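lol ok so funny story. i was supposed to be doing the assay writeup but got distracted and ended up predicting the structure for this chain instead. priorities right. anyway since i did it might as well share w the group, maybe its usefull for someone
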Amino acid sequence: MNFKQVVPLLIASTLGSGLSFAKNAADERLDAAADLVSDMMKASDKGVPQDLLSKAHCVILVPGLKKAAFVVGAKYGRGFAMCRKPTGFGWTAPAAVRIEGGSFGLQIGGSEQDVMLLVMNDTGMKHLLTNKFTLGGEATAAAGPVGRDLTAQTDAVMRAEMLSYSRSRGLFAGVSLQGATLRPDDDANRELYAKDMSNREILTGSITTPAAADRVESLLNKNSSRETH
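and the output, tada:
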């Protein structure tokens, strides 16, 4: 094989690798989301209470939410939402979401954290079916309680439509995401399903769960016992 024959093959191989990487980006985030569920639920008395996950109507998983701050704080992340199937048993296919938002404050530094939001009622779920909503605005949200004992939690927390948790540097805690905006990630949905799909279609329909989401679905089933709303 001469030089003129080798060059096109190298170019094709390089482009193919690039296309493969782009094609697998959503799959990689789903795998990271599965790690997030596993780690948060394994934290026992410092993790997400299992009975809250069992009561949740939907869950939003955002691995690697980026936070940067220099006087003005900013947040950005991409993840997935999954809801209970209409039968109450099992979870829907994942619908891709973006979380964006900012908060003013005297803060300098940067960090990256994993975020889990539990959607606790039908009203909260309806927000996921819209084009965009704001935590603390359209949707009431609170930092979620951690550990096994929920008796000390206030009514305000337990009435929230969404409860939020974070993991940063191995530490778990409830986290406030007031002012952050969630909206569908149409590009990731197209990447995952090979066609345009709305979050409403995915979260309320009978869309087949892609193989890349099998692990995260299995972990959610394992850690949530509820079968009906």
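The first helix runs from residue 3 to 23. Strands lie at 58-83, 95-119, 133-134, 141-143, 162-168, 171-174, 181-184.
back to the writeup now i swear
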